[in-house]
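agent: user wants the full assembly modeled, not chains individually. Plan: 1) parse entity lines 2) check alphabet per entity 3) run joint structure prediction 4) return tokens. Steps 1-2 passed, two entities, 319 residues total. Proceeding.
--- entities ---
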Amino acid sequence: MSVTERELELGHQFEDLEQQTEAYTVGMWVFLVTEVLFFGALFMAYIVYRSMYPQDFFAASGELDIALGGLNTAILITSSLTMALAVRSAMLDRWKAQIGYILATMGFAFAFLVIKYFEYSSKFEHHLFPGEHFDFKGENGEHAEMFFSLYFAMTGLHGIHVLVGILIMVALVYRTWRMRAQRQDYIPIELTGLYWHFVDIVWIFLYPLLYLIGPLGSGKG
Amino acid sequence: MSVHILPVKVYVRVFVALMVGLAITVWVATQDLGTWNTIVAMTIAVAKAMVVALFFMHLRYSSRLTMIWAGAGVFFLLILFALTMGDFDTRWFQVKGW
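--- prediction returned ---
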């Protein structure tokens, strides 16, 4: 099946559907490049401070819950699978399956945020949120505080992206339902998928960098 | 232009590969490899990111222009890292705290 067979809305600025699809896809990737550099700045800060205080980052990382972080990694990977299947369903004009897979993806995303909420709560309880009440039980507390500043900034920015993803998916479910009687362009869900997989990739890097440098391993940083 | 509709098994295989990657990452973290711990973990993470980009994000089936943009993201990220660390690693003074 080709896109040109579909009766889709073609923007008047485009020659044909092929050009429109290409423009949308490239445009989304351009946005993702800005996102890479947005997160990149935080990763840069992480690299600088970890190279300065490897031992203290090692000790501070030990406070994070490896099991919950790993569970969240598995949840996000699974949500990427359901998102990919939602895009595939859209390409095949299976709107019911598409809605089902989007809802599943939203469910996983929500589960991710719930687990994140419990992790954050535990950090607050143990006075590990940077600021006035920060109290780290090891040496060089101010360096551990830097680690937790980066932890909250990086996972916080990532969490906001997960939340935005859920909101976009709500809109997508509504759109798919409203247009169920007609053939739909798969591009909206394809672009949402690109965004969602990007969010997954960010977490793929965050998990080992924040959770897995701790006392599980060498201790040499 | 035809739409590339991949079989479900491709997506399932990618999913399994990512899960195996996660398991290996956690296992490697329990081993004492010194500085190699981070190198191995990042190598696995890059491999996982590549798999996600190539298959879930359909980069493998995308136009050259799309691939160039994806490459540009990595390229500029490496410029950011390389120039910043080039600065930090060659300063004659030690930055004290923050």
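agent: reporting back. The longest helix of chain B spans residues 64-89. Residues 54 and 62 of chain B are 9 Å apart (CA to CA).
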